[in-house]
Fold this sequence. Notes:
The chain has one helix at residues 2-25; strands at residues 27-32, 37-43, 48-50, 52-54, 58-61, 67-73, 78-84, 89-95, 102-105. It is of the alpha+beta class. The protein has one domain (26-105): Immunoglobulin-like. The strands form two sheets. Strands 4-5-1-8-9 form a five-stranded mixed β-sheet. It has a four-stranded antiparallel β-sheet with strand order 3-2-6-7, with no helix packed on it. The radius of gyration is 16 Å and the shape is elongated.
Amino acid sequence: MRWLRWALIALALLGLARCLYVGLFGSAIVHDDTGEVVSAVITNALQEQALLRLPGGIFFAVPDMEGTIEIRCRDGSRQRWGYVTGSMQTRLRVEPGAGCGRLVEVR
């Protein structure tokens, strides 16, 4: 039983460390309510950083660069929205609408 207590403490500390990391270095999150988004990236004139696709239509990244979020849809269309940089939280939601949907910034 003693090992279980230490394992739970270690998991709690790991979770806290992850929260602090994201809090310090920022995040870019896209919630896809439509199911039409194929991928999402942070992009600028020089480079791209892919957002990790998670279950439930969520895309996530800790930004390594400054830029905007671009979503790429099943129908081939692309949309850009928001501003992303390190130590800043950016959250977008793709809501139902014409084509791929409508991008809305979540506050």
